[in-house]
UniProtKB/TrEMBL annotation:
Coiled coil segments of this chain: none
Main location: membrane
PROSITE patterns in the cross-refs: ABC_TRANSPORTER_1 (PS00211), ABC_TRANSPORTER_2 (PS50893)
Protein name listed in UniProt: Carbohydrate ABC transporter ATP-binding protein, CUT1 family
Cellular component aspect of the GO annotation: ATP-binding cassette (ABC) transporter complex, substrate-binding subunit-containing; maltose transport complex
Amino acid sequence: MAGLTLRSVHKTYGEVPVIKGVDLDIAHGQFVVFVGPSGCGKSTLLRMIAGLEDITGGQICIGDRVVNDVEPRDRGVAMVFQSYALYPHMSVYDNVGFGLKLAGTPKPVRDAKIRAAAKVLQMEHLLDRRPSQLSGGQRQRVAIGRAIVREPDVFLFDEPLSNLDAALRGDMRMELARLHSDLGATMIYVTHDQVEAMTLADKIVVLDAGVVQQVGSPLELYNRPANLFVAGFIGSPKMNLLAGEIRGDRLTSAVLASDFALPTVGARDQSVTFGVRPHDLELVADGPLRGEVRLVERLGNETVIRVALPNGSEITAALPGQGQLEVGQTIGLGFAPGSVHLFGADGIRL
């Protein structure tokens, strides 16, 4: 296994820049997730690492090798795609070992690797079946098994769970986490689903429009988003972002019934965007946020509500338990000053 380094990596299609100078260090054994909205460049970046896309500028190193001009098959990577890409006329055994067979791996060695991968993925009982006899999750395991037998330096996953239903995605997330723990492998995983990113990653790389917005652990991104984009993208439900002003040590806003003191901030007397996560809001009769309940979602362990404020904007609150709130009810919401996230006019965290 090996780590990965990207230095000033660029990609353009004609005159259109898609990846705009990515610098990244991935240590051996890390599980790194590229996350961002559709079209942000995350899959393109993964394909460049795999060698399936040429880079326009910069340098990609796997271990201590510069691989800019190295063929995909010689880079020491194995890729698992969104589509399973299995051969329907072959058994699971033959699908898993097909790449080894093409490479001329002796049959006894090939057999040992196939059976070892099947054991890791708990699919020994499936080796004689064909893809048509498998569930979606089982097919994805076969595709992962085909990557494991190659014993790559780096595993690359391009939205591998997006074709599965919600319950199966949850099961497969646990399988991938277990696989990473068992193999100790370097893994890079692309998804637009920030829940997958938060639950799987050692390190998250948030991309938007071909630019890295922030790199850090899931909790670092959740607790201290670097800018408005990360604040609005990481977290479910997403953070409430509202306009306000800092006057001295107090936050004021048209949406607040009353202003209040904040912990020390680096800048004063300026317009800001302030953010409060839905889970940091609580019912307070005379709270600074007051409005009418527009939507109630009862999830059992918590109740998620949408509240219309007097200025026409809406906020989301995630309240514990199975509260008795109803649509049309007027309520007050409060939050601790320490839970407020502040961003300047440039969108950067203060």
